[in-house]
Amino acid sequence: GDLHSLAITADGSVWSWGDGDCGKLGHGDQQNQLLPKKVEAFAGQRVVAVSAGVDHSVAITADGAVFAWGEGEYGCLGHGEDLSNQLLPKRVEAWA
User: Which pTM value belongs to this model?
Assistant: First the structure.
């Protein structure tokens, strides 16, 4: 991302750090993280891909589910009419 980073560990956990504006780190708040912090919303799931945008993040789980969080303006999260910022990963229903 522009000011944040995402990583996947060997067990499929997602970690994020950096600028927390708009909730793009996925920890339920907008706090900056100076060190990598596990995104607990994915507990029990194996994430296989992540992408960090300017103010949003996306993840794909092993079962093919797509999750997006962070700034919702302009529909960039794919949540339809809900253009609100998402502080936690939210499943994109278009592929549910």
Answer: 0.96
